[in-house]
Write a structure and sequence with these properties.
CATH topology: Zincin-like fold
Order of helices and strands: HHHHHHHHHH
Largest sheet: none
Helix content: 55-70%
CATH architecture: Alpha Horseshoe
Number of helices: 10
């Protein structure tokens, strides 16, 4: 859409029509999370506050956060590290209540060596997660394997 206002109007109308269909709402989250624009980080943070988003629902987490981190390289690899920070914040929030999902969501950060520009920022988020005490086993395995070969 040509303007952010038009985009928001269309998304709001779509949600109004389909809000009672969980699978459609999940796609509604994914479409917004994968919008190829640097400001999508802020959009995802706002969507995490939406009434339809539920931190305890793995499908909602995957639809919004995993889609963002795995399918939106423009926003996830933003030069200031805001995309990495967003994913790190989510992991920190859900690690105690859902360590299996948190461990799976870490995958984009574990590829930090592939990105010369952002690798220090990605690694810093992994190190922050590694410092959780106690660190759930599922997360420990992913983070320690990713950082173990680090120079």
């Amino acid at each position: 859409y040509e303007t952010p206002v038009a985009r928001e109007q269309v998304l709001a109308a779509f949600y109004e029509r389909w809000q009672h269909e969980a699978l459609v709402v999940n796609q509604w989250f994914t479409i917004q999370a994968t919008r190829p624009a640097e400001d999508c980080v802020e959009s995802v943070r706002l969507l995490m506050e939406h009434d339809a988003f539920d931190w305890r629902n793995p499908n909602k987490l995957r639809a919004l956060v995993s889609a963002f981190a795995g399918a939106n390289p423009i926003a996830f690899h933003r030069a200031d590290g805001a995309g990495y920070r967003l994913l790190g914040d989510v992991i920190l929030k859900i690690q105690a209540s859902n360590p299996q999902i948190a461990a799976r969501m870490l995958a984009p950060l574990t590829r930090w060596r592939r990105y010369a520009a952002g690798q220090d920022l990605m690694r810093a988020v992994l190190e922050e997660i590694a410092a959780i005490d106690p660190l759930p086993k599922d997360i420990f395995e992913v983070v320690s394997r990713s950082l173990s070969d680090a120079p």
